[in-house]
Design brief:
There is one protein chain. It contains nine helices and 21 strands. With 436 residues, the chain is of the alpha/beta class. The strands form three sheets. The chain has an eleven-stranded mixed β-sheet with strand order 1-11-10-9-12-13-8-7-2-3-6, sandwiched between helices. Strand 10, helix 6 and strand 11 form a beta-alpha-beta unit. Helix 7 runs parallel beside helix 8. It starts with a strand and ends in an 8-residue tail after the last strand.
Length: 436
């Protein structure tokens, strides 16, 4: 089941800022398709960046014999010359002059292309998906995935029939820095008057009753709030209007995204690739791989930005936080809820007195954490992911201090409550079954 809930539309003023970082386009030698290079040439011009062409000759057996006769060295020199001439001819068909650099490498395509892009500090890698039916698309898709896995810069995978400009795009949003980076990269790729959809997928439920519907509505309310914050985090400059809307889908993540892209005539799907994929994150490697393999449009995969990129969400600059001020607890716990609602949670209670009672609750997901000023207590609500509507609530009184530990992707690893009667700890990402 796939449920779609379109939220409010907006018109934003957004434009790409010239990065100066090269666009590297990976061409398969003698392939003959010009769609990849057409789009790469257009993108480089839009970004005010140089274009660099890389072709890789898969000659892993250099120096070996063919039928007992050594392959002459000039054979490989001639092959390189022909590959360069082929790339130059394809560049000329796009109207490019001879200023674009062309490089021919020997070795494994994926690693060779990534190394060349890294050496040039590329801002984007563009690669194609082939022209030879389902089998060719699968083989090219696997090569593209090899580039995606190793690249330190965003990778744009394009089908052979792609044509600039890109006017209709969508971003798979999981609220991580990687998906925020994907959204920023997509804004840079959109043509004048472009339309961008921010899409979040929540896994569907087969059995729905009154309690489960109420739980779904509460989850979607939180998701709407997170989408609003995600939108506010986008860095925008005022030169070109971009229409933007948000949507919440329900179902299998990859399937829901591909179906949405097809029904809305999407030209580009963008997603993030996190360095640390949590169990409960939706858009991990398997989903990005399914998009690259299954999409008939272009796919942009953006890695999680590093500290050197200077692209860090304001809330993610702090790895940890500790406060004993009750006036700060409610706002802090609301932010923790927004970042972690729906994630697996392991709750541990330890009494302060020697020999006191200890207990552990496993196999639940976080629903909410709140601080009740009147009751002077923290309320923790966990949900059973296997029984919709079933939940567990803990109340912590005598609270003295709240501490959080976070990862750079914005998700928390742990929150600890120090109370007079003992300590309560919630670890996120736990996978044990209840009662173990």
């Amino acid at each position: 089941m796939t449920h779609t809930d379109l939220l409010d539309s907006h018109v934003l003023d957004a434009a790409p800022a010239p990065t100066g970082r090269p666009v590297v386009v990976a061409l398969k030698p003698f392939d003959g398709g010009d769609g990849t290079i057409d789009l790469a040439h257009w993108l480089a011009a839009r970004r005010g960046a140089p274009l660099h062409v890389v072709s890789v000759l898969e000659t892993a057996n250099l120096g070996t014999d063919v039928g007992g006769i050594p392959v002459p060295e000039q054979y490989y020199v001639r092959e390189e010359e022909e590959a360069i001439a082929d790339a130059r001819a394809r560049l000329l068909r796009t109207g490019d002059d001879t200023s674009t650099s062309v490089e021919v490498l020997h070795g494994a395509p994926g690693s060779s292309i990534c190394e060349a892009a890294s050496e040039r500090q590329a801002g984007l890698i563009v690669t194609g998906t082939g022209r030879h039916g389902m089998l060719g698309r699968f083989l090219y898709g696997e090569r593209a995935l090899e580039i995606v896995r190793h690249a330190t810069s965003p990778v744009l995978v394009v089908p052979p029939d792609v044509e600039p400009p890109i006017r209709r795009a969508m971003v798979a949003v999981d609220f991580s820095l990687a998906s925020l980076s994907a959204a920023v990269g997509t804004l840079e790729l959109l043509g004048p008057g472009g339309h961008l959809s921010l899409v979040h997928v929540e896994r569907g439920n087969q059995r729905l009753d009154g309690r489960s519907m109420a739980m779904i509505e509460e989850q979607e309310r939180r998701t709407r709030g997170l989408l609003t914050r995600f939108l506010e985090a986008l860095p925008l400059s005022v030169t070109r209007p971009v229409r933007l809307d948000t949507a919440i889908l329900r179902g299998d993540p990859a399937g829901a995204l591909l179906q949405y892209a097809e029904s809305h005539e999407i030209q580009l799907i963008a997603c993030g690739r996190n360095r640390h994929a949590w169990l409960q994150r939706l858009f991990v490697g398997s989903v990005s791989a399914a998009l690259v393999r299954g999409a008939t449009c272009a796919v942009l995969v953006a890695p999680e930005p590093s500290a050197e990129d200077g692209f860090v969400d304001a809330d993610a600059r702090h790895e940890s936080m500790s406060t004993s001020d009750p006036a700060q607890w409610r706002a802090l716990l609301q932010r923790v809820t927004e970042r972690n609602a729906g994630r697996a949670a392991r709750l541990s209670l330890a009494a302060a007195s020697p020999g006191g009672v200890e207990s552990v609750e496993n196999g639940y997901v976080l629903l909410s954490i709140d601080y009740d000023r009147r009751g002077a207590r923290a309320d923790i609500t966990l949900g059973d992911p296997h029984v919709m509507g079933s939940h567990l609530t803990h109340c912590i009184t005598g609270l003295r201090r709240v501490e959080t530990e976070r990862q750079r992707d914005g998700g928390d690893t742990r929150i600890r409550f120090d109370a007079g009667s003992g300590e309560c700890t919630i670890d996120f990402g736990a996978t044990e079954s209840k009662g173990q």
